[in-house]
Amino acid sequence: MPKIVDHDERRLELVDATWRIIARLGIEGATMREIALEAGFANGALKPYFPTKDTLLTFAFGHVFNRTNERIGEVTAGKTGIPALRAFCVEVLPLDSERVSEARIVIPFWQKAINDPEKAAIHRESMEQWHAAILEYLAQAREYGTVSAAVDDAAVAGHLLNMLLGAQIAAALAPEGQVDPGLSEQLEAFLTLLEAKN
Amino acid sequence: MPKIVDHDERRLELVDATWRIIARLGIEGATMREIALEAGFANGALKPYFPTKDTLLTFAFGHVFNRTNERIGEVTAGKTGIPALRAFCVEVLPLDSERVSEARIVIPFWQKAINDPEKAAIHRESMEQWHAAILEYLAQAREYGTVSAAVDDAAVAGHLLNMLLGAQIAAALAPEGQVDPGLSEQLEAFLTLLEAKN
After folding, report:
1. What CATH class has B1-51?
2. How confident is the model at residue B164 (pLDDT cuts 50, 70, 90)?
3. Which residues of chain B form CATH 1.10.357.10?
């Protein structure tokens, strides 16, 4: 019987190899040859999956985003309002080494997106999705009376989203071995301000 | 008389050329040859100023940081507390095309810093300097009674700093022609939360 190749599975293997290589060598060092070697592929065998490093990076970004969303789905299940917002943010913040690795994929993607309108659009669509989620949590919190501040929720959501993006940079550039540069405390301080009663 | 060459001046010319090239071609396209061409230098003439693209990028980052700090010095002159904090943030936020161009220098620097401890340390030192400035504005605001929220100022300052970093990404990846993706409103919403009275 011919060996059945699960192409999705192999793509994910390549993404994992890409991660390890980027973590070790940086995005410039992550050549297709290095990635193939790391994943145990022959050099030319990557081409059918990812014709260029660029397509691989875009796929890896999408994979990080989807995986984060899966985790968000799990941690926010059954929650609404501020508890849901907190769980969402805690999941997006790079609070462990796995998520710091993800930040190391996402930052090179942003850098490429500066001169690549298609990548920039992918980023913006992801952010719009998260912005809508935050807005919904805020609307629930207002309904419950846990949030009553006289501020525009869209602006608050945009602000928080930018903080979550900046946190990826802070974590990726933290000193070796330091995983969380105070990000949990920053989130809690913000939620305290948000929940304050006038 | 021999022509007097102002080396600092020439370095800044090169930084300006680097900017224009990065804006046009992205960091990968910004070869030393392209930068020399743009600045009107002979190909080898860059070497005495910047032996590598890397040294040029680090210098450009330092230049953006110093220039931002000069502008901060001007706009915060004579201000303290929340007015100073607002002026500081407005200056750091990429609210015009010049500062969006600066974000386009800073993001590639961050990306390089992921695998370059020296660059990461430069980033962290810059952020510590800004963190200290924000803390001072917050202490003044507490003294004046304009801020009385029961939150840790160091966490608030870290949160705000991360928002300012994330804003660079939001602006650099905004659709062509859109300069401010709502960043001013986000800042105002945050300051409203910060100033709320319990």
Report:
1. mainly alpha
2. very high
3. 57-195
For chain B, give the percent of residues with pLDDT over 90: 52
Interface of A with B in 121-140 (CB under 8 A): 121, 123-124, 127
Q: Is the predicted pLDDT of residue A1 greater than 60, yes or no?
A: no
Distance from CA of B125 to the nearest CA of A (A): 11
Which of B101, B125, B173 to mutate to test binding with chain A, by most A CBs within 10 Å of its CB?
A: B173
**Interchain CB distance below 8 Å, B186 and A112:** no
- Whether the predicted pLDDT of B179 surpasses 70: no
User: CB-based contact (8 Å) between B77 and chain A?
Assistant: no
Fold of the domain built from segment(s) B57-195 = Tetracycline Repressor; domain 2 (1.10.357)
Q: How many CB atoms lie within 10 A of CB B16?
A: 15
CB contact under 8 A, B189 and A155: yes
| A vs B: CB pairs below 8 A | 182
3-state secondary structure labels for all residues of chain A: CCCCCCHHHHHHHHHHHHHHHHHHHHHHHCCHHHHHHHHCCCHHHHCCCCCCHHHHHHHHHHHHHHHHHHHHHHHHCCCCHHHHHHHHHHHHCCCCHHHHHHHHHHHHHHHHHCCCHHHHHHHHHHHHHHHHHHHHHHHHHHHHCCCCCCCCHHHHHHHHHHHHHHHHHHHHCCCCCCCCCCHHHHHHHHHHHHHCCC
CATH 1.10.10.60 domain locations along chain A: 1-51
Question: Residues A87-102: pLDDT tens digits?
Answer: 999 999 999 988 888 8
A142 lies within 8 A of chain B by CB: no
ipTM of the shown complex: 0.90
Could you tell me if A62 lies within 8 Å of chain B, comparing CB atoms? no
Which tens digit of pLDDT belongs to each residue from A19-44?
A: 788 777 877 788 888 888 988 888 88
Identity of the residue in B166, B167, B193 whose CB atom sits nearest the CB atom of A149: B193
